[in-house]
Design brief:
- It contains five helices and six strands; from the N terminus they run αββββββαααα.
- The protein is of the alpha+beta class and 236 residues long.
- It has two domains: 59 residues, SH3 type barrels, CATH 2.30.30; 137 residues.
- It has a six-stranded mixed sheet, with no helix packed on it.
- A hairpin with a 2-residue loop joins strand 5 and strand 6.
- Helix 2 packs antiparallel against helix 3, helix 2 runs parallel beside helix 4 and helix 3 packs antiparallel against helix 4.
- The chain is elongated and about 85 Å long.
- The two termini are 45 Å apart.
Length: 236
């Protein structure tokens, strides 16, 4: 996509990966050479924030915002095993006397420092994922009660059929999105936690990257509320 075309997205609604509108594209930041460096986003609450271009995905007329948790988790789950393998290779080279102890100490110290920093970032991602999972759980609970109350009011005739169907469809759609989002955050937390525990380090060279694992993982179907009514009464 050419640079000039990106300006056409200014003012366009911005959705997250689950189809929820979270704000709009306000502007772009460019380098002196004209390269797009960052995007300014106005969220639904009126807050402005500057995000790297990597956080956006452009697909035709739609713009999708990739959350920081998922994008950083992808990087960390690939980089941590890589640095660990490099440090193990360094140990092997020292044992084979292919490098001097001085070189080993210097490089080992560098790898250890980088690994410690990456693991610290990974722990933050895990904690943030836990917060998001709880938020999704609360939203799912609220939506379930909203559906139940809608059903009650419809059952006693306070909500007509047309408005009932419209509201029910909207609530079910929101429930699917919240369930998908919760499952995604749980998957992200699981992958990052496994890397921190070292569960996937030994087989890192034989397994797919984090991004490929997420793409190939089949998520469970979100719950769909189904109501059975007596014969003769209005159904869904």
């Amino acid at each position: 996509m050419s640079n000039s075309n990106l300006f056409l997205y200014i003012g366009k609604p911005l959705k997250n990966e689950y189809g929820r509108v979270i704000g709009k594209v306000a502007s772009f930041a460019l380098t002196p050479s004209g390269k797009f460096e960052a995007v300014y986003i106005e969220f639904g609450d009126g807050q402005f924030t500057k995000q790297p271009m990597e956080s956006l995905r452009f697909n035709g007329a739609e713009v999708t915002y990739i959350t920081k948790i998922k994008s950083q988790a992808s990087v960390l789950c690939d980089h941590i095993p890589l640095i660990w393998r490099k440090d193990q290779a360094l140990n092997s080279l020292l044992e084979k006397k292919k490098i001097t102890p001085e070189v080993f100490q210097d490089l080992h110290g560098s790898f250890t420092s980088v690994l410690a920093s990456l693991k610290k970032d990974a722990q933050v991602i895990v904690e943030e994922a836990v917060v998001e999972i709880e938020r999704c759980k609360d939203e799912i609970t609220s939506l379930s009660y909203a559906i139940a109350n809608l059903e009650i009011e419809h059952e006693i005739g306070k909500v007509d059929e047309e408005n009932y169907k419209t509201a029910f469809a909207a609530l079910q759609d929101a429930l699917r999105r919240a369930t998908s989002e919760k499952t995604d955050y749980e998957l992200t937390k699981s992958k990052v936690s496994s890397v921190l525990l070292g569960d996937s380090v030994d087989s890192a060279q034989k397994t797919k990257t984090y991004a490929e694992q997420v793409a190939s993982t089949k998520l469970p179907e979100p719950p769909v509320v189904v109501y059975v009514k007596e014969v003769g009464k209005t159904g869904i």
